[in-house]
UniProtKB/TrEMBL annotation:
Lineage, opening ranks: Bacteria, Bacillati, Actinomycetota, Actinomycetes, Micromonosporales
Name of the protein in its database record: Amidohydrolase
Domain Amidohydrolase: 51-531
InterPro entries referenced in this protein's UniProt entry, alphabetically: Amidohydro_3, Metal-dep_hydrolase_composite, Metal_Hydrolase, YtcJ-like
Record organism: Micromonospora peucetia
Stretches assigned to coiled coil: none
Database matches in Pfam families: Amidohydro_3 (PF07969)
Superkingdom in the source lineage: Bacteria
CDD domains linked: YtcJ_like (cd01300)
Amino acid sequence: MTATVFENAQIHTLDPARPHAEAMLVRGERIVAVGSLDECRDRAGVEARRVDLDGMTVLPGLVDSHLHSALYVRGLEQVDLRGTTSLDEALTRIGRHAATLPSDAWLFGGRWDSHKWDRPVQPTRADLDRVCPDRPAVLPSIDGHTTWVNSAALRRLGIDAGTPDPAGGQIVRDERGEPTGILRESAGDAAYDLMRTSLTGDLVALLRTHLPRLLSVGLTSIHDLDGQDCRAAYETLYARGELPLRVHKSIPSTALDEAIDRGWATGDGDRWLSTGPVKIFTDGALGSHTCLMTEPYDGEPGNHGIAVTPVEEFERLVAKAAGAGIAVAAHAIGDAANQMVLRAYARWQESARTNPTVAGAVRRLRHRIEHTQHLRPADVPLLARLGVTASMQPTHCTSDIPLTSRMLAGRDLASYAWRSLLDAGATVAFGSDAPVEDPDPFFGIHAAVTRQQADGTPPGGVDPHERVDVDTALRCFTEAGAYASYEEHLKGRLTPGMLADFIALPADPYRVEPADLRDLTVALTVVGGVVRWQR
C-alpha cells in the first residue's frame, strides 16, 4: 500500500500532546505519523508519494452534527424564498419558478421568513393561489415548522373546514373556520412527506450531484437527521462506492418499530455509514411560535407553544428505543421542552440502573438534545450531569437575534448557552441544521466566537459571556461530533491511528480576526486519505 506524505503545512492536530506539526504520513485510510518533515519522510520510505501543501493550514475534517441532507439537496433545485423582504417579492419568485415546471408538477421549496418582511404577516392560500392557481404548492417556512400551501394542495391533502387538528399540530383557520393555508407542526406532516417522494426528483442523483458542496466547505462527516428515503439513498451510494463523506444516519421516530425489528442499534455500521439515534420532536420553533415555553408568548396569553410529543409518550419512546440499544435525539428548543426532555432522561437513567438487563445502556448510550436553544439556568448543570450531548447550531443564535430580542427579552433563560454548557462539563457538538442555515461550518465558528451577525451587530455580540474561542469552536465541530457518533477513537484529531480526514485552508483560523472567520475558504478536502474535493 503506497504511503503519502502531506508536507509543507501548518498542521493543527487538536492533540494536546502534540498540537502542531509540519507533515503527516498517511497510508490507506489511516494516519501513520504526524510531526516534522524528516520524521514523516523517514517513516514513509523512498517510494512514498509526496503532496506539497504550500504552507497551508491543515485541520481535522469538520463534522456537522445536525444536517438535513435530503432537504438540502432537494432545496437547491426548488424555489428559494430566503432573503425575500415582502410577500410580493416571495410571490414573484414563486411565479417565476412555477413557469419553469411541467404542467402536472407540484411546486416545492420555501424557507420564507415572514418576520423579515416589510409587513410581517402570515401568508395565506389566497396569496399563493394568485401565482399558483392550479398546481399544488407546498412551501415550508425557514424553520420548517410552518407549512404554507395553496388551495390545490389542501384539496389533494384532504384538508378542509371539517378536518380536525392532529395531535401536536394546528390547522390555522379564518373566522369562518376555513383553513388559511398555514399548517403548523404535525398538521403539515402529510405535505412535508410529499417532499420526500419521487415528486421531488431522484434523491440518489441529487445527493451525488450536490454532496460535493459539503466537501467544499470542509465537511468530511455529517449526522443526517432526514428520513428513511435518505437512508436508502445513502445505502445505494455506499453500495456503488460513490459515498464521498461519512454519514451517521438518524432514525425518524416513525421508523422506530422498523429499526427495532431489523435489529438496528446506534453505532452499528462502519466508518462510512453508521446508524445514529432516533429523532423525536418534543416541540416546534421560536419563529413559528410553537416551541414549548414556560411563559406564554407575548401578546398570546394562552400560547405556550406545541407539545409535539407529550411527556408520557416521550418517556415511553425513550424506554422503548434505549431498550433496543438505540439512543434518542430529542428536538427541543423551548425551555419547557428542554426541561421535559432532561427530566425524562433522568427518570430513564434511574429506572435503567435498577434493571440489570438494561443497566449497561446507561453507560453506553449517548442521548442528545437537538438545538438546546433556550434552557432554564438550573437545567444547564443537569444536562452536563446526565451526560447528555447538546447538539447546537451556532448560526441559529445570530440569525435569531431579531426574534429573541423581541420575543424573549427579560426572561430568565440561558439561550444558545454553549459556553455555560461547556463550563458545566457538557459535550457540545456543533452543526448547521442546513437547509435552515447555510452548511458552511466557518459561518458557525464565526457565530460561536463572536455571537454577531455577518455585519458585526450587535457590538460585542449577543450575551457575550457565552462566546468561545476559536480552538473551542473547532473542537465542537470535530472532537465533539466524533464523540456524538461514538467515533472519538477514529476522528476529531490528527494523530497516528486516526482516519485521514482533514482539510487545508489558505488562511489560519487561529490567526485571522474573529470578524473574518466566516470568510475562510477551503482549498482541499481529504476523506480516508483520498482527495475528495479541491478548489
